Amino acid sequence: QVQVVESGGGLVQPGGSLRLSCAASRSISSIYAMGWYRQTPGKQRELVAEFTSGGSSTNYAASVKGRFFISRDSAKNTVYLQMNSLKPEDTAVYYCKATVRWPRLEYYWGQGTQVTVSS
């Protein structure tokens, strides 16, 4: 199994930036996909950005394209989400998700980190 831990959330003014970190308990090179999701009260968790296909591809939500950027540091077993030009509607709990395919398809979620965009 994989444990993932998010950090880096906080309060930021509109137009500001934050960088979130997701540290995994094993090499991210052995994980099929890792990415970021977010959720607000009463809504479904939605994809923000992810690496897929063993890290060979990226996928972004339309609402964050051009503002958010996902990156990784394999030596640190860590995936990052750089969030720029933040808007109040970006306010949510952000979760890291890891997907493994062997020996079976499984998903692992972190506890989440709160991002609040407000003046």
* Helix and strand element order: EEEEEEEEEEE
The major β-sheet equals:
7 strands, mixed
Relative helix content: under 10%
How many distinct helices?
A: 0
Average pLDDT works out at 94
Low-confidence stretches: none
Q: State which percent range the strand residues make up.
A: over 45%
Rg calc:
14 Å
Shape field:
globular
Structural class: mainly beta
- The count of strands amounts to 11
Q: Termini, distance in Å?
A: 40 Å
3D architecture notes:
The chain has 119 residues and is mostly beta strands. Helix content is 0%, strand content 52%. The strands form two sheets. Strands 2, 4, 5, 6, 9, 10 and 11 form a seven-stranded mixed β-sheet that branches. The model has no long low-confidence stretch (mean pLDDT 94).
Describe how the helices and strands are arranged.
Elements: E1 4-7, E2 10-12, E3 18-24, E4 33-39, E5 46-52, E6 57-60, E7 68-73, E8 78-83, E9 92-100, E10 106-109, E11 113-117
Parallel strand pairs: 2-11
Antiparallel strand pairs: 1-3, 3-8, 4-5, 4-9, 5-6, 7-8, 9-10, 9-11
Please outline what is shown here.
The chain has 119 residues and is an all-beta fold.
Give short descriptive properties of this protein.
0% helix, 119 residues, mainly beta, 4-stranded antiparallel sheet
